[in-house]
Amino acid sequence: MSKDTRLCISLASRPSNIGTHFHNHLYDVLGLDYLYKAFTTTDIEGAIAGVRALGIRGCSVSMPFKEAVLPLVDEVEDSAAVIGSVNTIVNDEGRLTASNTDYIAVRRLVDGLDRTPFLLHGSGGMAKAVATALVDAGFGPGTVVARNEAAGRALATSLGLDWRSAVDSLTAPLVVNATPIGMAGGPQAVALAFPETTVRAASTVFDVVALPALTPLVVAARAAGRRVVSGAEVIALQAAEQFEKYTGVRPSPDQVREAAEVSRI
């Protein structure tokens, strides 16, 4: 590390080492003079001002900051503007451009699935990315399940979906968890995002939670013999997109797979 080393960071309420290990591994493999560090903050405005003022090259944004950073940047790419949610900021000599690589990753992951009705649990930034990607890819009809009626109805209405306050007995061929339920270290780390009856009725179960890779929902879905799309897959693909935006270098698929394996250690 030297004075010329370029810094990239992440901002999250509960930082993990997934992105840190992923990016730093690829910097080493590709011989890039970059360093990646995870942070948390209670002052998102101050943190983004610091990104701009200190010349921090890139910033990954996670819950609960994905929407709060929108008014703090200079330009918002279509991937984030349509969703109203940001997960990536690139700093070009003080000009901040926001995008959403979660959307890109989800689109790629669902391309091989049958276009079916879906049930989506969540109404936050990640849920917006997933719902928009599914609708854009031709899935539907869909239902948004969210306890927050205002947020849930707003997301559902914006995409022509239904809203419900609870899963109850709802089922669909594709069910997606876009909440923190099942996240390690969280208050619902051992909880299921959907009842077991809903899991068994599905053909495909998609959990965006990346830590742990084997969430309670993923374990239940595999036990039921259902096709699974995991948060580990999402985070690897979206991180590869971020990596290219930050460095201008596109890692190979093999390098991405290796970095994803390292990130889970």
Helix content: 25-40%
What kind of oligomer do you see?
single chain
Dominant shape:
globular
Number of strands: 12
- Beta-strand portion reads 15-25%
- What structural class do helix, strand and pairing data support? alpha/beta
Largest sheet: 6 strands, mixed
Q: Tell me the name of the CATH homologous superfamily of the largest domain.
A: NAD(P)-binding Rossmann-like Domain
CATH topology of the largest domain: Rossmann fold
Structural domain tally: 2
Helical segment count: 10
Which parts are unreliable, with pLDDT below 50 for 5 consecutive residues or more? Answer: none
Overview of this structure, please?
With 265 residues, the chain is an alpha/beta fold. The chain folds into 2 domains: 125 residues, Leucine Dehydrogenase, chain A, domain 1 (Rossmann fold, 3-Layer(aba) Sandwich); 126 residues, 3-Layer(aba) Sandwich (Rossmann fold), CATH 3.40.50.720. The protein is built from 10 helices and 12 strands. The chain has a 6-stranded mixed sheet with strand order 2-1-3-5-6-4, sandwiched between helices. The chain has a 6-stranded parallel sheet with strand order 9-8-7-10-11-12, sandwiched between helices. Helix 4 packs across helix 9 and helix 9 packs across helix 10. The longest helix has 17 residues. The mean pLDDT is 95.
